[in-house]
Design brief:
This protein is an alpha/beta fold. It has a domain of 159 residues: Purple Acid Phosphatase, chain A, domain 2 (4-Layer Sandwich). Helices cover 19% and strands 31% of the residues. The protein contains 5 helices and 17 strands. Strand 3 and strand 4 form a beta hairpin. The N and C termini lie close together (10 Å).
Amino acid sequence: MFRFCMKMDTRFTFVGQTLTARPSGALWWAAAGVLAVADLHFGRSERLARRGGTLLPPYDTAETLARLTREVRALAPRTIVCLGDSFDDLAAANGLDAAARATVSDLAAGRRWIWVAGNHDPADPGFGGEAVETFHAGPLCFRHIAARQPAAGEVSGHYHPKLGVPTRAGHIRRPCFLWDGQRIVLPAFGTYTGGLSARDPALRALFPDGAEAILTGRRTVSVPVGLHQSA
């Protein structure tokens, strides 16, 4: 049986730090003033159309930025860390329109902005801020793809984890955080990003002893179950 703990957001202790999993999929570290988001994938709809893929309404970047703006206004972070794949490819980064560029500039004003390199990203997206492979702050290490043998305190993205669970109202499937005592994998923050089952072998390999899932949505839902268990 699943045991659910539903909250507006979920605070938890990780390597001695109090972190908050936000319903949006952002991770908030209040003591350090750090807001982390993963896999924004700006320009995804344009990239899919350009490469002959599925045609989607071209509003994903604006929607993603609107949600990020709400988080920044609510929390007033001193540092924003984008955990890689912030752009769907180099052409998407170069092709962002003036409105999107202005929004990024406004959000970055007066604070530190960290672009962690991802597998989709250009080395430096050319939007100001700092472009790095990894970002260290206190006991936390922020990177795009989880290391196979991490030191405790790793925070990453890349996998876009989602989890499906049965409820009294029916089966729900939502993007989720996954975490244990060593690492956290964030859900994708971007629109149209899809997701990988939290029970996929790639994620099971990262959490061989199981992980707590925190589902996102209007509220967060904690599901303290091992990934070895069936959905």
